[in-house]
Amino acid sequence: MRGPAGFLLCLLLLVAPHCTEVAAQDDEPDPKMPCAKWMGGAPGYPGHNGLPGRDGRDGLKGEKGEEGAQGPKGDAGATGSRGFAGAPGAPGLPGPMGQKGEKGEAAFVHRSAFSVGLTEKPPAPNIPIRFSKIFYNEQGHYDSSTGKFLCNIPGTYYFTYHLTVYLSDVKVSLYKKDKAVIFTYDQYQNNNVDQASGSVLLHLSSGDEVWLQVYGNGNNNGIYADNVNDSTFMGFLLYPDSDDH
Predict the structure, then answer these.
(1) Interval 2-32: pLDDT, tens
(2) InterPro entries per the record (predicted)?
């Protein structure tokens, strides 16, 4: 055959063996596959999960991360036990002077005292000697009209007397509540001026009276006083009774 038809037939005859060879090569089984493609069956079911593998070794320590934000404040913890006292600190500097306080009330002080002298001469015997010269009698506890001291504050008192003796002997006694407590006797020496004295501590109750008087009925009233010589009598409270005052 000649012409185009013959050319095509010749071409087909040349190409056909090559295509058959290629097809044959493509159908050869892959040795890596379990079955050749030409023998492959239906797909199988998935297998069971295998056992977990062992933990791997720790990796290298990474770089320090950035500081995170501050978390919320936690609840207060329980109070701890008291610790030991620390060593004393150094003294501080003196503070400024404070303002002057108000004047307080003074404690009450009980007072009772007298000091008197003689003006009449000679005194009569066996009656209280009236010392009418007043040296001190601020509380008025001595009565110059009677010659007696009247106790207004119960307590312990001190009494003393100093008498000038002239012209005759002197015998005097200090009385408390109509009872003689002490006696003093001085014998007069002619052409001389002498002194007789005495003192005593007494506890007095309110209303008790104390005085001096010439004792006895003889010539024992030589107590003397003038503008130069004095005969004196005095007494004062040492301390009051704590139970009553």
Answers:
(1) 566 666 665 665 555 554 444 444 455 555 5
(2) C1q_dom (IPR001073), Collagen (IPR008160), Collagen/C1q_domain (IPR050392), Tumour_necrosis_fac-like_dom (IPR008983)
